[in-house]
Amino acid sequence: MTTGIRVTIWNEGVHERESEEVARVYPETLGGQLAKAVEGKTGIASVRCVELDDEGQGLTDAILDTTDVMLWWGHIAHARVTDENAERVQQRVLDGMGLVAFHSAHKSKPFRALMGTSGNLRWREWKGVGEKERLWVVDPAHPIAEGLPEYIELPHAEMYGEHFDIPQPDQQVFISWFQGGEILRSGCCWHRGQGKVFYFRPGHETFPIYYSEAIQRVILNATRWAAPTRGAHSPTRGNVPPLEDMG
Amino acid sequence: MTTGIRVTIWNEGVHERESEEVARVYPETLGGQLAKAVEGKTGIASVRCVELDDEGQGLTDAILDTTDVMLWWGHIAHARVTDENAERVQQRVLDGMGLVAFHSAHKSKPFRALMGTSGNLRWREWKGVGEKERLWVVDPAHPIAEGLPEYIELPHAEMYGEHFDIPQPDQQVFISWFQGGEILRSGCCWHRGQGKVFYFRPGHETFPIYYSEAIQRVILNATRWAAPTRGAHSPTRGNVPPLEDMG
Amino acid sequence: MTTGIRVTIWNEGVHERESEEVARVYPETLGGQLAKAVEGKTGIASVRCVELDDEGQGLTDAILDTTDVMLWWGHIAHARVTDENAERVQQRVLDGMGLVAFHSAHKSKPFRALMGTSGNLRWREWKGVGEKERLWVVDPAHPIAEGLPEYIELPHAEMYGEHFDIPQPDQQVFISWFQGGEILRSGCCWHRGQGKVFYFRPGHETFPIYYSEAIQRVILNATRWAAPTRGAHSPTRGNVPPLEDMG
Amino acid sequence: MTTGIRVTIWNEGVHERESEEVARVYPETLGGQLAKAVEGKTGIASVRCVELDDEGQGLTDAILDTTDVMLWWGHIAHARVTDENAERVQQRVLDGMGLVAFHSAHKSKPFRALMGTSGNLRWREWKGVGEKERLWVVDPAHPIAEGLPEYIELPHAEMYGEHFDIPQPDQQVFISWFQGGEILRSGCCWHRGQGKVFYFRPGHETFPIYYSEAIQRVILNATRWAAPTRGAHSPTRGNVPPLEDMG
């Protein structure tokens, strides 16, 4: 159906440089580890990592023009992404680009702009070790559940809990259980314009979550799901003549 | 369940002053005519009309603090609403205020911010007389369909057609048929945060649509539906201790 | 909007007679305790309890003709409800009657027929004392969340866990956390035909859950939400002439 | 992601034998023409046509065991499909098989059982020539819209109009405009259990609709979309021990 998905991984890239602990967990950066989930897999044409400190914040037209699906990891530098760049990403999604937003990206500018809500939630990073999270598949018919067990267990995770201020998902794939007593809608699908958005909760920078085989499978599935649908042409907008004889 | 809904009708108020034709159709302004749909009805505590040229663009804290549901009619002056005021309206909806957006409000700043999409669509105002529109009830169980016939027929309407760039509605109440060959998702419900949003297509300024009894019934039903849900308290956000013993 | 909701509580009524333990927890029967949540409340016109062993299984035309919302509690005798009666309840919902299905009613004939799925799930009744359940409000804008805290905690509950084989809810109001590690979509809304269906998980017969003030509030809210929407007339079906001049 | 979709086309096969007119329009049967949309296409492993008069009504275990996606065309002989066979098809969908239901299949037993509603609607076959239908793409991001124009125009179609008694679609892909003044939700997606269901309105037996290139594209897209998602194993049901230490 496609000649292959061109993936761009946008990684904030700040924690890895400022924290030895994060650099130890993700020596190839968070973006580099996300890349391993998709590189060389069936249906994936190319994988590229960009960062906030790259030219044009890694969001130039040259990059966006050659991106089918963008994976987004950001946390402490959301505010540094310019409003113009956030709007460009939003517009690209409306034009068909897929966006897979991870973890703290619930507060990133492009995700919030696409949702229209605050993205606020409860959270907790328990004593540096986190707590157990169990992601339950609640829609086993969904392509993002392909090849997965009934649930994915993460022994050490930051907690994100409800109420999570997002629009009701078009499709709910995962809901998380947390040891401390909370739950979260943790795998959520939306269409926006001609594009698709998937939010996936896991991925705190100090826990080796992106090494999990099941999590890698979700990342691959979500990337495939988010691939652009190519219509014969884009929808017509604006003032149009009638299609029927108006007498 | 409530002690009565305090309704604020926000009307742009430009057409009525600049166009004799509009002033003839809506001598008491578009806002004034919308008010007639809700004034004195069961469950409605108060109705107030404000306009763009009022102090603070009619969107001061004093007004928003005493508004349960806001009805919004705007068209040619969307850009004059300040970004700050649009954000304030958006935030109020997330905090529980209902928003009923009419007709051209699909391109208003608060509606677009809450949707995250462009709101773009096809449109046509046929030779000054418009064309026939028939709004079909596709969800007869929905409270906004209370007391309505199977469809509402408008002999003279501006056409708005698909693709309409909005998120998939949480609930779809009306879909419109147009004489010229198009259709539109014309009555759409969403929850956003603690608040509710209803988009209702009819209402071109040169057609006497808001005098229709059936349309007035929809306006009343939508206002009641959009009334705030009052939880025992607002959702907790931010860093929280665990609810369970973490050992 | 209505002259008051006529509530019929359909209670299987078997456990209370066969088990002293259940009779001790619910001396006035489960139906009788459900009734306390709605009796005498604003908007409720009447409340009546019927049981499986009543004439016509409590589902005669005389009863259904005078029911706006039916609350359904059943567990061990689902199979005794005749197929004809289950179909009658299904048809009444399609015609506008509200249905609030509690707990084990996920496997009742009318609920399954309305859903089209098996209703299967994981479950556990832990050592006779159950386990902690915490129902999180994930849609604070929904009328069924009116007056509720952020979550409802039940110290002793039977566990029902995902995957729960139901259609994706039109609106998701509650999601439950369980002590043993599972989650469940535990408060779910659907429209079916001209009627509404709410599934609410809590209510095991050996735990005094229906005495909880918060649970009683949910029952009342759900009953109000499920009240019929009265259109000006029912939708037309079958062969119809064109509405437009076909030349 | 799959080794290829095994398609079974279930065609009632009555009209073609009883009506010369239908046999002239579909000399290779309706099933045979549907097959042309998928045969030999990328991702399709095999295509097989079965009919009501085949052994076991074309719904034997041997057939169902080797079917990934079933296309269903039926009209005047819905009642002849046995309840047992309808339940088998329903169960297969819950177990993962895709179902694409065409045109009059809105009243077929398996579709109705999966929906839980009557499937009733308004209809009209205008003077043997039908009327114009225009199917608008309202979700251009959906994979079923791949390669399509903004709308598909059918010069001669039977009319099916709202209110259409179906559950709110999980995803709405097409909405139809009809010359006679009606609209219909004409391309509708649902997940049911581990399976997917797509309803697609076009396909009256006396009009050569399935020869349309755009319609053929929809059939192919829908077949691909409905392909089973294969989890690592099926969801666990029934009584389960806790996943957490219960003290």
CATH superfamily of the domain at 5-118 and 188-225 in chain A: Class I glutamine amidotransferase (GATase) domain
Distance between the termini of chain A: 43 Å
Tell how many strands the DSSP assignment of chain A holds. Answer: 12
Q: What value does the Rg of chain A take, in angstroms?
A: 18 Å
Sheet having the most strands of chain A: 9 strands, mixed
Quick check: average pLDDT of chain A? 96
Please provide a written account of the structure.
With 247 residues, the first copy, chain A, is of the alpha/beta class. Chain A has a domain at 5-118 and 188-225: Class I glutamine amidotransferase (GATase) domain (Rossmann fold), CATH 3.40.50.880. Chain A has helices spanning 15-18, 20-25, 29-38, 61-64, 83-94, 109-115, 213-225, and strands at residues 5-11, 44-51, 69-73, 98-102, 122-124, 131-137, 151-157, 159-161, 171-178, 183-192, 195-200, 238-239. Chain A has a nine-stranded mixed β-sheet with strand order 2-1-3-4-11-10-9-6-7. The first copy, chain A, has a two-stranded antiparallel sheet with strand order 5-8. In chain A, α3 packs across α7 (213-225) and α5 (83-94) packs across α6. The first copy, chain A, is globular and about 75 Å long. The termini of chain A are far apart. The mean pLDDT of chain A is 96. Chains in contact: A-B, A-C, A-D, B-C, B-D, C-D. The C-D interface holds C 90, 94, 113-118, 120-124, 126, 131, 159, 161-163, 165, 167-168, 170, 179-182, 190-193, 235-244, 246 and D 90, 94, 113-118, 120-124, 126, 131, 159, 161-163, 165, 167-168, 170, 179-182, 190-193, 235-244, 246.
